[in-house]
Q: What sequence folds into this?
């Protein structure tokens, strides 16, 4: 972007992508008459003169005034029309953004589909967080925590249940972007609304398949000391091949680390464990208690997928809520959604019983 004093700070991700795709080395830039020190400044996100950026693009064979030039010069600059979404310089908006959404932790964001500037066919699902309502002190706490998204992915080492690649960073003074690669997936909410039978939820076998994948993804997180916290149907994506993807990892809690992006107490939500709505997170005593937070959300989402309805705050007997499910599944979900977190099973316990539960389901419902 262009700075007020006439310099340019180019998007590092786009500069690195351009260098990588060109396969040019520093010696090649030097041979073309460009000082390698200036290339390093561009690559490191340092201020350079406009002429330096023009020379860099000329070496790459890209025109001044073209699309890449405009993204490097103005990609992080707000536009007059508020309907035009300006993302990180590596990405271009594709279609209109969603309405502003309030997350369970009080942060506001909107979702924008994107396409990558230099990689053909690469599309992204961007989340733009609005930080304008926060004080400087709150922003100092929030911004580093939002930037944890790539750190979480690094811990997960490209596991298939989580986004493969991501970009994140500030756009201007008040908007923070997190962009995951995207492949025409539906959120679990959209999928249930589209596929549910007469508004009665998904078929039993499909519900078991989806929720088993969610449980497996949560187990991977817990094994790596990551708590998803605040899992909702809108943060679970169903890919075209039926595979489940967990998103919004910038909102995770890393056990043993601070700061966090949530306030001391979280607002109530149909998916949020009750202890997080009424107990300061600093009072939650141990790892097992934190894992129980995710188990509760998983159980509530299971009921939503099975019935097609958001479960009420107070649940009756599971045999009345999901009468078509085997008693063992009902018992597991009853424990998972119990208000007292000490009585909930671990996600590993749920998966350990899953094979037996699935066998019972297959025997009782062979036609599903």
A:
């Amino acid at each position: 972007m262009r700075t007020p004093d006439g310099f340019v700070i180019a998007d590092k991700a786009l500069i690195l992508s351009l260098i990588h795709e060109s396969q040019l080395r520093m010696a090649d830039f030097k041979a073309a008459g460009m000082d390698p020190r200036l290339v390093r400044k561009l690559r490191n996100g340092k201020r350079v003169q406009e002429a330096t950026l023009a020379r860099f693009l000329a070496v790459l064979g890209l025109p001044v005034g073209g699309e890449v030039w405009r993204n490097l010069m103005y990609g992080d600059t707000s536009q007059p029309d508020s309907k035009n979404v300006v993302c990180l310089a590596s990405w271009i908006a594709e279609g209109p953004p969603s309405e502003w959404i309030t997350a369970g932790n009080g942060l506001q964001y909107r979702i924008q589909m994107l396409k990558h500037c230099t990689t053909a066919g690469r599309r992204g699902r961007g989340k733009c967080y609005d930080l304008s309502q926060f004080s400087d002190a709150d922003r100092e706490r929030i911004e580093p925590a939002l930037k944890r998204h790539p750190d979480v992915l690094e811990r997960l080492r490209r596991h298939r249940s989580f986004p493969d690649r991501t970009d994140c960073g500030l756009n201007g003074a008040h908007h923070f972007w997190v962009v995951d690669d995207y492949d025409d997936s539906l959120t679990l909410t959209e999928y249930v609304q589209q596929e549910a039978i007469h508004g009665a939820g998904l078929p039993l076998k499909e519900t078991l398949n989806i929720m088993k994948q969610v449980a497996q993804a949560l187990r991977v997180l817990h094994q790596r000391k990551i708590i998803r916290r605040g899992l909702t149907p809108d943060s679970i994506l169903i890919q075209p091949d039926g595979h489940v993807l967990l998103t919004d990892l910038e909102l995770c809690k890393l056990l043993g680390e601070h700061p966090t992006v949530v306030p001391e107490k979280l607002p109530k939500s149909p998916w949020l464990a009750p202890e997080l709505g009424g107990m300061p997170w600093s009072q939650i005593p141990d790892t097992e208690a934190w894992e129980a937070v995710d188990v509760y959300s998983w159980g509530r989402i299971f009921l939503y997928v099975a019935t097609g309805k958001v479960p009420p705050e107070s649940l009756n007997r599971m045999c009345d809520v999901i009468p078509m499910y085997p008693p063992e599944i009902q018992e597991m979900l009853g424990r998972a959604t119990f208000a007292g977190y000490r009585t909930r099973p671990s996600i590993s316990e749920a998966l350990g019983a899953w094979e037996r539960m699935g066998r019972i389901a297959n025997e009782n419902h062979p036609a599903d």
Summary: The chain has 15 helices and eleven strands. The radius of gyration is 24 Å. Residues 91-181 form a domain with the Phosphorylase Kinase; domain 1 fold (CATH 3.30.200).
